[in-house]
Each structure stands twice: as C-alpha cells, then as structure tokens.
C-alpha cells in the first residue's frame, strides 16, 4: 500500500468519525467527557499538575457539493462510493421507521411468517416427499411441534396426513425417539377433525403402517387418539355430515385395528383414552373386548 493510499484510508476513517449531531449519534462518548470536564472544573485551582485525559479529536472536513461520485484506486478490485463515505450515518439511517414491537408481538409475527412459509411448502408437494427430510431430524420435529399451534386448520391437517402416510419411515429413522414431542399438538389437531377428515387420516395410517404403529409408542398413541375422536363424534349430537362410504370404512377400520391389537404385543402408549373400550363394545363381542382390554392394559 502506497503512502497516498494510506492517506486516503486515514482520511476516509476520519470522515466516518465526523458527526453533525454528536449528542444524538455519539451520546455516551460525549456524556463521558462532559462528566470528566465537570469534575475537573470542580477541583481546586492549585491542582494543575494532573495530566488531562486524552481526548479524541477529529479533523473537521468540509463537505463539498461537487465531488467525484466514484473513486478509482490503482490496483484495487472494486470502486468506493464517496457519497456513502461522506455521510455514513445518514446512509445507515436511510431506512423506513418501524414501530417497536413487544416480545409477544415479535414472537407472534415470527411464527406467522414461518407458518406461511410452511403452507407454501404444502402447496408445492404431492406426498410430502419434499418436506419429509425436515421431519427425519429431531430438531425438525421439535420445530414442527412449536409451529403446529399457529397453523390454520387446513395446514395442520395436511401436516398430520404427511406424518401418518410416512409413519414407517419416520419411526425407522427416529433413533433419538423425538417423535413423541409431536403427540400433544397433533392430539389437539385430531380433536378438531370432522368425521370425513378423520376417515382420510385413518386410511393413511392403517393402509401400510398399522402393524408398525402398534409397536411404536408414538404410532400407537396417534392411533388411539384417532379412534377416540371417532367415538366422541359418534356419541355427540352434532351432525356428522359424512361422505359416501365413510361409515363402511369406519367399521372396517375398527375390525382391522381390533384384530391387530389382539394379536401383537403392544407398547405402552403416551396416553390411553378412556372411551376406547366403549368404542370396541359397539362393534365387537364380549370375548374380543375382554381380550383387547387385557392386552391394552
């Protein structure tokens, strides 16, 4: 670096230290030396042997109206805009004023933007293949469990169907056993499903992964939650408005699940709903219900 270039850089740095509003833009430095000067003024006049503390002084450089907009340095790889160097604080401050948000508003805004990005991911997928790698890591599962309460009903249902349709892959890759963190938010999602939506989710779960689900804590808990929600809907006085074939599919699912639960050894679920035996009593004989009760407990 030549002497001319060093001088130019020094001048540039000194310009950046200049301020037309020192108490606004450099308040702490100005206030610090104001207190020191006030303290020295109160000292006795005879004490003059004390050294004055060093104070940063900058050369005031007059800004000119006419200047070369771009400075070329020989041998450099870029160009420096002098306008930004002459008014660094003004250039940095040239942003739109944003009203300060509290911690709750900022947190809510973050999750709203994140949920909108997730919905865009849903629109770009067919079977959740693009979103599945996100769920294969424990951090992705924890993030999804925090995101689900902020999603709209349609987006939360899509997320539930992605998990149920890819449950064998998720269970086989869940080495850290992080899937249970998804159960509480998914249980809330299941509690808001209609009968037709419930049938679609049950189809995804029982088509390929029923046997594996019964041997996994998260899968079995999810199955129990779906059956419990179906029993609540059937027992309530709210009109179900089912689609064609929903009741037949529901009955076939009950027999399929009951046969699987009575044959295999079950793991302990995260939560055992109290209305499951009532559900099985609607469709099964007493001997099968007794066998299911002893196997489930």
TrEMBL record:
A biological-process GO annotation = P-body assembly
UniProt cross-references to InterPro entries, sorted A to Z: Pat1-like (IPR039900)
Q: Which domain of life is it from?
A: Eukaryota
Q: What Gene Ontology terms describe where this protein resides (cellular component)? A: P-body
Which terms in the Gene Ontology molecular function aspect does this entry carry? RNA binding
From the Swiss-Prot or TrEMBL record, give the protein name: Uncharacterized protein
Q: What is the lineage of its organism?
A: Eukaryota, Metazoa, Chordata, Craniata, Vertebrata
């Amino acid at each position: 670096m030549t002497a001319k270039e060093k001088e130019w850089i020094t001048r540039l740095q000194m310009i950046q230290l200049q301020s037309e509003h020192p108490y606004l833009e450099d308040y702490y430095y100005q206030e610090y030396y104001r207190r020191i000067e006030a303290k020295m003024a109160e000292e006795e006049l005879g004490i003059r042997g004390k050294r004055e503390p060093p104070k940063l002084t900058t050369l005031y450089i007059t800004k000119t109206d006419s200047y070369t907009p771009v400075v070329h340095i020989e041998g450099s790889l870029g160009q420096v805009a002098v306008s930004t160097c002459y008014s660094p604080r003004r250039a940095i401050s040239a942003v739109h004023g944003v009203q300060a948000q509290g911690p709750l508003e900022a947190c809510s805004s973050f999750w709203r933007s994140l949920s909108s990005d997730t919905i865009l991911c849903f629109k770009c997928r067919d079977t959740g293949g693009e979103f599945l790698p996100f769920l294969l890591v424990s951090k992705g599962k924890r993030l999804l469990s925090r995101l689900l309460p902020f999603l709209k009903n349609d987006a939360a249902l899509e997320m539930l169907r992605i998990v149920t349709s890819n449950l064998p892959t998720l269970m086989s890759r869940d080495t850290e056993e992080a899937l249970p963190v998804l159960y509480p938010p998914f249980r809330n999602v299941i509690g808001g499903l209609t009968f037709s939506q419930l049938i679609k989710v049950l189809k995804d779960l029982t088509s390929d992964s029923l046997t594996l689900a019964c041997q996994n804590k998260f899968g079995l808990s999810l199955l129990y939650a779906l059956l419990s929600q179906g029993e609540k809907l059937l027992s309530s006085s709210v009109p179900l408005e089912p689609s064609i074939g929903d009741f037949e599919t529901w009955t076939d699912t009950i027999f399929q699940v009951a046969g699987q639960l009575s044959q295999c050894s079950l793991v302990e679920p995260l939560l055992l709903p109290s209305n499951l035996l009532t559900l099985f009593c609607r469709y099964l004989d007493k001997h099968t219900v007794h066998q299911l009760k002893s196997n489930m407990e």
